[in-house]
Amino acid sequence: MTFDFWTSCVGHGFLSLMDHYINANWNLHSKILNFIHMPPPHNANTFHDKIHDLLKEWKIHKKIFTITLDNTRANDNKQDMLCDTVNVHARLPCRGEFFHVRCGAHVLNLIVKEGLKLIDVGISKVKDLVKYVTDFEKIFTITLDNAGGNCFGSWNRLC
């Protein structure tokens, strides 16, 4: 199972529930089971209750052995509560030790963001250099225009 929650640009919360399973021919399938508006409050208890209700509605609350969520701290509480509830209905393998699987795409996104922070100083220096060169080019062009295009002749008289 995969759960995801996000807030729209106007502040409306949405919850998606996806099921992933392998059929008899060993083919992986993924299905969106629910995509619903999630009114406030957006806390662990509300999410737990809603997710558990949806699982019961689909009659799969006894068939789940793992869920995938992103790495937000709020999801730790949700998954702990859900693990306890699911473990009551159907004994989880390894007592639920592997119930929560972190989202690989989210982990990769966090790694890239941290990597970009490390090179941010270098990127800023390159931007400053490009700005300096661009500004110098503008000043040089203005100087040439003011000298009537004969800047080098003026410089030769100085030597």
What do you see in this structure?
By secondary structure, the protein is of the alpha+beta class. It folds into two domains: 2-113; 119-158. 51% of the residues lie in helices and 20% in strands. It contains five helices and five strands, in the order βββαβαβααα. It has helices spanning 44-57, 73-89, 104-118, 120-146, 151-158, and strands at residues 2-7, 13-22, 28-37, 67-69, 100-102. The strands form two sheets. Strands 1-2-3 form a three-stranded antiparallel beta sheet, with no helix packed on it. A two-stranded parallel ribbon has the order 4-5. β4, α2 and β5 form a beta-alpha-beta unit. α1 (44-57) packs across α2 (73-89). The longest helix has 27 residues, at 120-146. The termini are far apart. Residues 154-159 have low confidence and may be disordered.
Shape: elongated
Taking all Cα atoms into account, the compactness measure Rg is 29 Å
Q: What would the average pLDDT be, to the nearest integer? A: 81
Number of strands: 5
Number of domains: 2
Distance between the termini: 80 Å
Count of alpha/pi helices: 5
Strand composition percent: 15-25%
Topology order in helix (H) and strand (E) letters: EEEHEHEHHH
Low-confidence stretches: 154-159
How is the largest sheet built, in terms of strand order? 1-2-3
Largest sheet: 3 strands, antiparallel
Structural class label = alpha+beta
Helix proportion:
40-55%
What can be said about this structure in brief?
The chain has 159 residues and is of the alpha+beta class.
